[in-house]
Task: structure prediction
Amino acid sequence: MEFRCDQGYAILVRCMDPRLEESIQEFLILNGLVGYTYVISLAGGPKDLAVEPDGFTANQIRVACRFHEIRTVFLMSHLDCRAYGGNALYVDAPEAERALHLGHLEDARQHVLALYPGMTVVKLLAVPREDGTWEIEEIV
Result:
């Protein structure tokens, strides 16, 4: 996966969970996004946009778009998110946890596109690895 913001800026809507920090920084560096990305960090990340289409996250996206030419919005959710109850709620059905995140990512994507029809919106899911790091998957 490679994204470049050679022209314009990007927005990353992510969870504020500090366990993701190293993997997110690596993602930003590898994709040339450092210095070109507004980071909107809140519990559950894109969940807010999925359930409150005109709420805090939508307002933050509007503010960023007002000041810079935003070309791409990255929506990043992650498994074992405490805003969703964490893994403990999904011990017997891990596929349900993934499905819930994917549903919210798609809802959030649709809300961004309703605000900005020409925007590129990329859905990302961070999945924990056994070594404690996170793999960031693009969801297509």
Q: What stands out?
A: The chain has a mean pLDDT of 92. Helices lie at 21-30, 47-51, 56-67, 94-115.
